[in-house]
Design a protein that fits this description.
- By secondary structure, this protein is an alpha/beta fold.
- It is 30% helix and 17% strand.
- The protein has 13 helices and 21 strands.
- The chain has a five-stranded parallel sheet, with helices on one face.
- The relative contact order is 0.16.
- It binds NADP nicotinamide-adenine-dinucleotide phosphate.
- NADP nicotinamide-adenine-dinucleotide phosphate binds next to helix 4.
Amino acid sequence: MSASRQPRVVIIGAGVSGIASAITLQRNGFHDFVILEKGSDVGGVWHWNHYPGLTCDVPSQVYQFGFAPKPDWSHVFAPGPEIQRYLADIVDQFGLRPHLRVDAEVVAAEFTGSGWRVETGAGEAYDADFVIAATGVLHHPAWPDIAGLDEFTGTVVHTARWDDSLPTAGRRIAVIGTGSTGVQVVSALQPKARQITHFVRSPQWVIWAPMQLPQPAFVGAVLDRLPALNRALYQAGMTGAKLFTDVVTRPSWRRRAVQQYARLSLRTQVGDPELRERLTPDYQPLCKRQVLSGSYYRALRAGNAELVTTGIEAITPTGIRTSDGRHHEVDTIVFATGFRAHDYMRPMRLTGRDGISIDEAWAKGPRAYRMTAIPGFPNFFTVLGPNSPTGSIPLHHAAEVTARYIAAWINRWSTGEFDTLEVTEAATDRFGAHVAEALEPTVWNTGCNSWYFTEGGHIDLLPFNRHTMETMLSDPDAEDFHLSTQGA
Ligand code: NAP
């Protein structure tokens, strides 16, 4: 065994998981890494998304890194731009800028037999011993295929590619889609729009929450002076988050109580029985990613707002025609239609051992051992990859825990224990079966469609609690991997 060698690592993506990975590498003494980011700045979804009303519906106290708790959030639920700034500040604070290449979209990554060759759209190539794909889940905007879209003469925008110069005041605006995004953008645009029409294919349960609640300045000042208290607050938030994990993963009176609160939120805010009827989903609250808002129902009740639940038939040059034959004249169509959440690294040309492509490996849908290792793709890891706990455990923490697991493997590589490692099919199957069984009693499996489902009908989430996730990623289990050394 050689003494200690420095790995060359390519991290793809500079969002939450890419930043967590880079800092974890640094903390393990690995400094030969590059972060390739296709956007013009860091932040991932928080860089790409800047539509009006964008607010994180997870309390800021847990929507942050454990190693960098921010004392002075402006709100209990931080606005999007503030989260992007937080991530950019961390990149500066931890000295990641020299490692960062922005506007560097990875178009191909190929396993060479001993490592990886990674290529960007600009024609640059990087050789690496390891690749960490931190490419995100809510990454590729989903554009629905609606007849006539090309003929529309007004403005069309997707929320994930918002044009900040787009005039919305005094306009007739159609918003299509009613996930967290649609609800936020309708609430934000309604006050100044001439007319806002919300096209809702499947109503969502919308739980009332004080999304605009400011965090008083003195709280930030106190937490800034008392970092131990700030850390304790973060830990308290993580403990509180356990309750949410429990509610979504196991049926109990606690789940029923939250579901009752969702029903109550609708009943108490929408007095008109006809409107309430049309806003009532035909599935259990919490089945889809839960939407939180303190302003959506109020916006819908306004004189300039209309809810349309009749299906869209076609887009015309001047508006939207619904299947009841009605024509809705609009100036602007806003697609709040979400993301292709299961594409992960694709459309990148990702080629593993023996020339296998990621599309071949994932022909039956994305799969990864413990969310991070893929059979056929040696020395390659995902962070917030398939089956990550996007619906149940604070994401920064999940990214940190996964990054530490990867670093533990890289540490073993650096001591010369192996040159390449590849997870076995059998271990990946075992993990998949364990996940499938644990998904049974989750609320996501109670009869709704959502972006949690892959095209193959699998729920792409982690149905375990934080402790289980931490345990499964605590210590690399060599029995689940093929380890090889060059020439062996
Ligand atoms: P989403 O939850 O996937 O919602 C997409 C919406 O578009 C659904 O209402 C869907 O209707 C509708 N839709 C799609 N195609 C359509 C079509 N052809 N015609 C009519 N309607 C169509 O997407 P999202 O709202 O962007 O949210 C995605 C995730 O991003 C959230 O669940 C959340 O995790 C995250 N997010 C978080 C925040 C935050 O505050 N932290 C804010 C925004 C987003 P169906 O339900 O009928 O398919």
